[in-house]
Structures are given as structure tokens and as C-alpha cells.
Amino acid sequence: MRVTLLGTGTSHGVPSLDCMIDDYARCPHQVCRKAEADPRHRRTRCSILVVVNGLNLLLDTSQDFREQMLANRVRQIDAVLFTHAHADHIYGLPDIRSYSRGGKVIPIYGSSPTLYALQKSFDYIFHPPAFVGGGIPQLAPHVLEARGQVEGVEVIPIPVEHGNAEGCQGYRIGGLAYLPDVKVIPEGSLALLEGLDLLILNCLRPRPHISHLSLAESLAYVEALRPKRCLLTHMTHDIDYEVEEPSLPPNVRFAYDGLTVTV
Q1: Residue 260 phi, psi dihedral angles, 5° rounding
Q2: Annotation: CATH topology of 2-126+135-254
Q3: Beta strands in 62-193 (DSSP E)
Q4: Are the beta carbons of 8 and 255 closer than 8 angstroms?
Q5: d(CA 14, CA 22)
Q6: Which pLDDT value is given to residue 66?
Q7: Is the pLDDT at 102 greater than 90, yes or no?
Q8: Distance between CA atoms of 171 and 179, rounded to whole angstroms?
Q9: CB of 66 within 8 A of CB of 95?
Q10: What is the pLDDT of residues 156-199, one digit of tens each?
Q11: Do the Cβ atoms of 149 and 28 come closer than 8 Å?
């Protein structure tokens, strides 16, 4: 199984528009300025691509979906799994139309609240008008809230708490687990995360946040779950990998856009 980190940033991305407007005056460690020269500091909105059994499984369609597909030369998408319906994780969906040409229907999966929110946000896709002037993606929604099959691949949803995001969940595929937005992992979900080869986990910033894991909180979950390897993702400009990474445990690293790993 091959995993590509398509995007590793939060809803603001890095560099942040706020920092650019303020001429980087309030940017911690000047990460947004550094991003102009160092691509490892540049973070588009969060998403991953999992290639398993010859299938391309996309997790979330971020607001930077189009650029991520171009940057990584992704030529096919066989299914999409949505973690939740916040804008930075779903608003690239219209551009998936390029992957459903010729009548191809792309199955999409998520919790009931997530799929409901998707259909409200993109009514024209799920209830197309009689007159269609432009391309509309051909999608088939499927509720996935318990262990099940996605195009023949076993997938385990991992329910998590993330602010007011109803139905938010990560996913486990074999030895991989992906939890990009989380504040609390309930006890029942922790039991689904034992024996991981790779955990990709939310790590917003060093300071605490009301709906995301801080660096210390992320590392506490890593200590409890003991995956062979952990990549931290969904990071703001507060995370400077050059400053923070030397103090991380040996099996933990900060992810970056375009990173590809084998599980």
C-alpha cells in the first residue's frame, strides 16, 4: 500500500493569506515567509491518496484538490472517503468531474451526517437540473459507519470528536490509520487503532486548541497507541519542522505535501 500526503495544512493553508496581508509581521517563526523558498513549509489543505490493490482511494476532496491532482499527476480516482463536511475537506468536489468522464460513476463514502451535508452543499451534483450546461460529477453515495468494503478493500471508520463536526471519522485501511481532524479519540475508537504500521494524525500547533489536537496531545496519543510510525498533519504556520522535529520521538515526524510512504 502506498500513501501520498496530498495536503498537510489547515483551512488557512501555509502560507496564510492573513500573514501575507500583514507582511508576515505576526507569523510564528516566519514559516509563511519560509514557505516561499522551502516547499516543506508550504501546506495545502488536508488530504491523502491511498493506492491499494491497484485502486486509488482518495480521502477528502480539499479546497486545493485540483492543484494536488496536478502536482502528483493523479490519473484516476476509484473511490472517495470523506472524514467530515467542513469546507476545507469537501470544497474541491466539483473538480472530480474530470475523473468521471464517459459515464464513470465514482462511489463516495462517509457518515450519514457527512453525506447529508455534502448533498446540501452540492445540490446541483446530487439533484442535477434538467439543463446541464457544464460537467457534473457522476457520484454514488454510500453510508460507511462500520467496518465494510470499499471497492473490495476493507475499511474501518474511526469515530472521533472534532468540535461541532457531526459524524466526523477517520479511517483504518490495513495497517494505516488516517485521523486528520480530531480533538478526542473515544475509548471505543482507540481499540480500533491497535497494531498500526502508520498513524497519520492531526497536530494543529504547539498551543492548545478547542477542537484540534496540540503537539503535546498528539504525542500523548502516539505514546498510548504505539504505532510503528506516525506522521503529523493538518498543521498551521505555528509548526516549524526545522525547530520542532529534533525533539520528536524517533518514530514521529511532521508530514509535508507530496510525501509518499509505503505501508
Answers
A1: -120, 130
A2: Metallo-beta-lactamase; Chain A (3.60.15)
A3: 79-81, 106-110, 139-143, 148-150, 153-159, 169-173, 176-179
A4: yes
A5: 14
A6: 98
A7: no
A8: 7
A9: yes
A10: 999 999 999 999 999 999 999 999 999 999 999 999 999 999 99
A11: no
